[in-house]
Design goal:
The protein has one domain: 3-Layer(aba) Sandwich (Aminopeptidase), CATH 3.40.630. The chain has 4 helices and 5 strands. By secondary structure, the protein is of the alpha+beta class. A 5-stranded mixed beta sheet has the order 1-2-3-4-5.
Length: about 160
């Protein structure tokens, strides 16, 4: 049997649909009901990626084993309000997804490592993400700490 070789590569534009599908699958696995998924989710997500690539230094990363995509992660500058100093720039990591058969094998860690390297390269001083309950173990093991973000439920 041939050895499985994991490769992490930068995503190209043609990967945007795969990244969008991973994001939708992630939402479903986190408990979002299929009837609540937007009918235009694919177009909306690929349009978001294009805008993020054009305006927010977006970069995606793909995990492949022997040429088959098994995971992806996305990152970009986090710009919620005007930044008045270049000394403090947050980056945002989102959409980390690994196919179920390849989980707990270090794939997510390698995708996160590439994302962090890229965010540092573009001058980010902090990396921010929102973790699912299952993802918290991975992220805390990588050095992420819970922040002072506060949320008000508007429902």
């Amino acid at each position: 049997m041939p050895e499985k070789t994991l490769t992490i590569r930068e995503a190209v534009k043609s990967d945007d649909v795969i990244i969008a599908k991973h994001l939708c699958q992630l939402a479903l696995e986190l408990g979002v009901t299929s009837d609540s998924i937007r009918h235009d989710w694919l177009e909306k997500t690929t349009r978001f990626i294009k805008r993020a690539r054009d305006e927010l230094c977006y970069r995606g990363f793909m995990a492949e084993i022997n040429g088959q995509v098994i995971g992806s992660a996305s990152c970009q500058i986090l710009e919620l309000y005007p930044m008045v100093s270049e000394a403090y720039q947050k980056g945002y990591i989102w959409g980390l997804y690994v196919e179920p058969n390849y989980r707990r094998q270090g794939v997510a860690t390698k995708l996160m490592d590439q994302s962090v390297i890229y965010l540092k390269d573009i001058g980010c001083t902090k990396a921010v993400l929102h973790a699912s309950d299952t993802g918290k173990l991975l992220y805390s093991g990588l050095g992420y700490v819970e922040s002072n973000e506060m949320v008000l439920n508007l429902e």
